Amino acid sequence: MICFRSQRFFRLAALTLILAVLAAPDAGGQAPKPAAPATQPELARQRELERDAAVNLSLAKKSIQEDAFYNAKVALNVWRLSALDAGNFDRKLYEDLRKQLYEKSIRENLRCIDVAVTQRDAPEANLCLRIYRLHAQEINAFDPKRYEDLKTRVSGIRKKER
Questions:
Q1: pLDDT for 77
Q2: What torsion, rounded to 10 degrees, do the Cα atoms 75, 77, 78, 84 define?
C-alpha cells in the first residue's frame, strides 16, 4: 500500500514538473522569440483583398461615369465593403465619389425635368423633381429657390392642360 502511494506521488510530482517546464519561459538567457510574421496564406489572402478592393474601385469610378444611379451606387458600396475588408478604406475618397454620383443624378434629373416640361409630361416631371430634391438634400446642395422655380414650371403643365 505504501509503495502504491509513493508511486502515485512520484507520478504526480513528475507530471507537475513537466507542466512547469513547459509553461516556464526560455531560461537559456535568450529573449523570447518575436511573434511570427503573418503566415503565407494570410499574406496571400491580404493581397487578394487589396487587389479586389482596387478592382472594385476602378469599377465604381467607371460605373459613376457611365451607369445609371442605382447601378453606380451599388458599385460604390461594393468597393466600400471590399476596401473595409482589405483595411485600406479611404473615407475622403468615398465621400468624393459619392458626391460625384449624386451630382450626376441631379444634372440628369434637371435635364429630365426640362424634357418632361417640353413634352408636357407632368407625371414624369414630378418624378424627376422629387428625385432632384432628394438627391440634392442628400449632399447638402438643395436650393429652395431653384426648387420652387422648377415646381412652378412643372405645375404650369397641368394648368395649360385644363
A1: 97
A2: 150
Q: How far apart are CA 53 and CA 59, in angstroms?
A: 10
Task: Report residues of the chain scoring pLDDT below 70.
Answer: 1-38, 159-162
pLDDT score at 155: 93
Contact 79, 46 (CB under 8 A): no
Residue type, 155: S
Domain extent for 76? 43-89
Q: What is the pLDDT of residue 41?
A: 87
Give the residue from 134, 137, 147, 56 showing the smallest Cα distance to 97: 56
131 in a domain, yes or no? yes
To which H or E segment does residue 144 belong? helix 144-161
84, 104: one domain:
no
| Residues 77 and 50 occupy one common structural domain | yes
Residue owning grid cell 441631379 = 106
Q: Which residues contact 67 (CB under 8 A, 6 or more apart)?
A: 75
d(CA 58, CA 54): 6
